[in-house]
Amino acid sequence: MSTLTNKRILLGVTGGIAAYKSAEVLRRLQDQGADVRVVMTRAATEFITPLTLQALSGHPVHLDLLDTETESVMGHIELARWADLILIAPASANFMARLAQGHGDDLLTTICLAALGPIAVAPAMNQGMWANAATQENVTALEQQGIKLFGPDQGLQACGETGLGRLLDIEGIVDLTAGLFATGLLTGKKVLITAGPTQEAIDPVRYISNHSSGKQGYSLAAAAIDAGAEVVLISGPTSLEPPDRVKIRRVISADDMQRAVMSEIAECDIFIGVAAVADFKPVQSVDQKIKKGEAPSNQVMRIDLIENPDIIAGVAQLDSRPFTVGFAAETENVVTYARRKLEKKNLDMVIANDVSDQSIGFNSDENRITVIWRGDPDNEIQLPVASKRNIAARIIELIAEKLPA
Ligand code: C5P
């Protein structure tokens, strides 16, 4: 199983003879399970047609910053946020210069400027252009900005010259791309994650629940797998496919979830409680469906509720407790309430998010969070809006950083 499975890769194609190889790069990334969308510079379209890359990717190819049609399908900011990685292959000398200087004068450079996730470039150019001092300065600038360089390779070039500047072989590009997602940060660690809502039965056909989609918890499970961890995901009812290599245990109610957590917690290094556990359950769940007709019309229906166990607080009280991470979904005073939760539930880290904003949180694909942890005085970091997948990768990095040695 590849670390590229279900990864979203924005393939940028720039204008050089090696642009024809981008079709093969796209294919091989797809072979590894990646979802690839393509952005081409105008010059790239002189070397390979957008139609080819559109047919192979199964999505419209994005060409212009001000193209109302493709912008309405997915605008440049959305594309930047959608991507788990932006891979520019091939990257021309001119594109690298513009990227190094922070230009935003076409679609691809603008997307790179707006990107919150990683960017990698696979240069391809004449050996003299590669060796040129200006190009080398740009390479240094790109590396300083944290942009990864894949290649270039040595060998015979399309212009007939031999030297450094060829596009790295496609297998090499795909391997390095896959390697970016395999951080190894949690190698040898066991991670237990709860996700999704719980359902609390009123009778055999009705229940109390909430709007949690499970997306953030499932993304964290995938990110922990990519970081080399052994992952157990205890999920309430969701419509999501569990990530590969994750041991999934499906549960319905908070009581079920608590039992499953306690049976898996031994030898667990990290516990991440993402589930939106229902705070209350009906005192009694009756065996037969409650009939409407049996009550006089307009009768008030009463369901007495009792508190559910606090799963994460139970984990945090264990003698040999794992590094315990909770979520705090709030609608006001988000950080203040999250800090209180850190103390009250005796957690090691809290991820706070504002669920009053409809564009982030619960059912959305995006999130904006603040991470708070114990210990050092500078113990708060706010992450800007990004896809739940990118956020998950950042949370895993932070957990790995704060985990006691
Ligand atoms: O108390 P509150 O529901 O706001 O706390 C949220 C955090 O606590 C989340 O990490 C959630 O998974 C966890 N939680 C829990 N058991 C509950 C309620 C919340 O584990 N009964």
Written overview of the protein:
The protein is of the alpha/beta class. It has two domains: 8-181, Flavin prenyltransferase-like (Rossmann fold, 3-Layer(aba) Sandwich), CATH 3.40.50; 190-402, 3-Layer(aba) Sandwich (Rossmann fold), CATH 3.40.50. 32% of the residues lie in helices and 24% in strands. It has 14 helices and 19 strands. It has helices at residues 22-31, 50-57, 68-73, 76-82, 93-100, 107-114, 127-131, 133-144, 170-181, 215-226, 254-264, 311-316, 334-344, 388-402, and strands at 8-13, 35-40, 85-91, 119-123, 148-149, 153-156, 162-166, 190-195, 200-203, 206-208, 230-235, 247-250, 270-273, 280-282, 305-307, 323-330, 349-354, 366-373, 380-387. Strands 12-11-8-13-16-17-18-19 form an eight-stranded mixed sheet, sandwiched between helices. Strands 2-1-3-4-5 form a five-stranded parallel sheet, with helices on both faces. Strands 6-7 form a two-stranded antiparallel sheet. Helix 1 crosses helix 9 (170-181) and helix 5 crosses helix 8 (133-144). The relative contact order is 0.10. The mean pLDDT is 92. It binds cytidine-5'-monophosphate (C5P). Cytidine-5'-monophosphate is lined by residues 194, 254, 273-275, 277, 308, 310-312, 326-328, 341. Cytidine-5'-monophosphate binds at residues 194, 254, 273-275, 277, 308, 310-312, 326-328, 341.
Topology:
Blueprint: E1 8-13, H1 22-31, E2 35-40, H2 50-57, H3 68-73, H4 76-82, E3 85-91, H5 93-100, H6 107-114, E4 119-123, H7 127-131, H8 133-144, E5 148-149, E6 153-156, E7 162-166, H9 170-181, E8 190-195, E9 200-203, E10 206-208, H10 215-226, E11 230-235, E12 247-250, H11 254-264, E13 270-273, E14 280-282, E15 305-307, H12 311-316, E16 323-330, H13 334-344, E17 349-354, E18 366-373, E19 380-387, H14 388-402
Helix pairs in contact: 1-2, 1-9, 4-6, 5-8, 10-14
The chain binds cytidine-5'-monophosphate.
Residues 194, 254, 273-275, 277, 308, 310-312, 326-328, 341 line the site of cytidine-5'-monophosphate.
